[in-house]
Amino acid sequence: MPKLATALERLGTETAFEVLARAKALEATGKRVIHLEIGEPDFDTAPHIVEAAAKALRDGQTHYCPAPGIPALREAAANHLTAHRGIDVHPDSIVVTPGAKPFLFFGILATCNPGDEVIYPNPGFPIYESAIKWAGATPVPLPLTEETDFAFTAEDLKSRMSSKTKMVILNSPANPTGGYISKQLNAEVAAVLADHDCWILSDEVYSEMLWGGAEHDTIAGHQGLQDRTILLDGFSKTFAMTGWRLGYASLPEPLREPITRLIINSVSCTAPATQLAGVAALAGPRTEIDAMMAEFDRRRVAVVEGLNSLPGVTCRDPKGAFYAFPNVKGTGQDSRVVADRLLQEAGVAVLSGTAFGDYGDGYLRLSYANSMENIQEAIEAMRGLLEAMTA
Ligand SMILES: Cc1ncc(COP(=O)(O)O)c(C=O)c1O
Predict the structure, then answer these.
(1) Do the beta carbons of residue 96 and residue 74 sit within 8 Å?
(2) Ligand 1 pocket, residue 97 CB under 6 Å
(3) How far, in Å, is the centroid of ligand 1 from the Cα of 205?
(4) Within a 10 A sphere around the Cβ of 311, how many other Cβ atoms?
C-alpha cells in the first residue's frame, strides 16, 4: 500500500464530528442519546430564505459564478457589516466562500510561512490550531481563563507577541466558552497590536448571539486595524444555515487577490443559488431569527441553572454563542472521562474541553441548540451519573 503524505500528521480535526459519529453508532444499537455535542442551531432555515434559493435554481442559477462571490451578496454583506459593526466596508473587500471556515485556512495559508508564529485562543475552535500547523507556522496559545469570564487580558496577549508574530486570531463571541471580547478589551488589544506589524483574523460568526445586554464589538473598528484584519462572518449560526455552506469576509486589499486565487484553486466559487439565499437572509424579515435568539437565551438560563445544581460542577454565565462551558474539576475525574461516561452511561453527548486545546482541560462543552425538554432530560441524566461519580 503506498504511504500517505507526512504533512497529514500536522492536520487536526473537529472532535464534535467524531463524537457525533460515536453517538449515532450508539443510537443505532437502540440507545437513546441526547445531542449536546454539535454546534448547530436546531432550527430550520426561515422559509423566505429557502424560497429564494429554490427560485434561483428554477431561474437557472445553476452555473459557475464569479470566484469572490456574486455582486448582490458582496454588496449586501458590505452593507450589513457597515451597519452592524460601525465601520465602513466596501463591497470590493467582501469575498464569499462555502461556509466561513475556508477563511481560517485561506487566511493563514495566504499570510504565514514556516517559522512564523500565530497567536490563537485556547480553548478555541480546533481548526485554528490545525490550520496554523498545516501552514507550517507555530501555534502560540492565548489561554482563555475562567477567572476572566473566558476572555484574556491585554497583558496576556502582549506577553505572547514577538518579532515572529505574523497573525493574531480573535474569536468573539467564542466557541467553546461562550466568552466575548468587550469594547474596552478590544481597545486595549488594539493598543498592543498597534505596535506590531501582524495580520489579525477576527472570527465573528457568533456576532449576533450575545446575551444579557453584552454588545458585539469588532477589533477592526479600532486604531485603523481594519487595514490588516480579516473580518469573517457567516450564515450558519445567525440564520440557521449550517448545511448550506455560506460565509464571507471583509479582507484587507493585499489579501483579496491571493485568497480569491486560493478559492479558484480549491472550490472555484460558492453556489450562486446559495448566495442568493444569503441575500434574502440579510435583507429579509428577522421574525424567525429573533424568535430563535429568544429561545436560545431561555435555554441558556435553564442550562446554566441546571449545570450549577449538579454535584462537582460549576458553570459561569456564557455571554455569547450557544455553548455552556462548565467546570467539572469537582468531579475528581478527567474531563475526557466525564464526557465519555456521560455518553456511554447517561446517553448525553457532550465534548470534553480538551477537544478545544490543552487549556480546556477540566471543562465540558455543551451546545444548548436542543429543545428545552431534551436539555432538562439531559441535566437529570447527568445528575444520576455525577451523583454516582462524586459519592
Ligand atoms: C468559531 C467558529 N468559527 C467558524 C466556524 C465555521 O462556521 P461555518 O459553518 O460558517 O463554516 C464555526 C463553526 O462551528 C465556529 O464555531
Answers:
(1) yes
(2) no
(3) 6
(4) 14
Give the dihedral of Cα atoms 356, 184, 153, 314; nearest 10 deg.
-50
Confirm if 232 and 238 have CB atoms less than 8 A apart. Answer: no
DSSP string computed for 188-245? HHHHHHHTS--EEEEE-TTTT-B-TT-----GGGSTTGGGGEEEEEESTTTTT-GGG-
pTM surpassing 0.85?
yes
Q: Counting Cβ atoms within 10 Å, is residue 112 exposed (0-12), middle (13-18) or buried (19+)?
A: buried
d(CA 130, CA 15): 12
235: which DSSP letter?
Answer: S
Residue nearest to atom 5 of ligand 1 (CA): 101
Pocket test for ligand 1, best of 38, 101, 105, 245 (most atoms within 8 A of CB): 101
Q: In whole angstroms, what is the distance from residue 267 CA to residue 68 CA?
A: 11
Match 483579496 to its residue by C-alpha cell: 256
Are the CB atoms for 78 and 289 separated by under 8 Å? no
Total residue length of the chain:
391
- Taking Cα atoms as reference points, which of 221, 223, 171 lies closest to residue 195? 223
Is residue 66 helix, strand or coil?
A: coil
- List, in order of start, the domains of the chain with CATH numbers: 6-44+287-386 (3.90.1150.10), 63-283 (3.40.640.10)
d(Cα 50, Cα 353) in Å, to the nearest integer? 35
Amino acid at 254: P
Query: What count of other Cβ atoms lies within 10 Å of the Cβ of residue 212?
Result: 11
Span 95-146, pLDDT tens digits: 999 999 999 999 999 999 999 999 999 999 999 999 999 999 999 999 999 9
Read off the pLDDT of residues 347-360 as tens digits, 9 standing for 90 and up. Answer: 999 999 999 999 99
- Cα 195 to middle of ligand 1, angstroms: 29
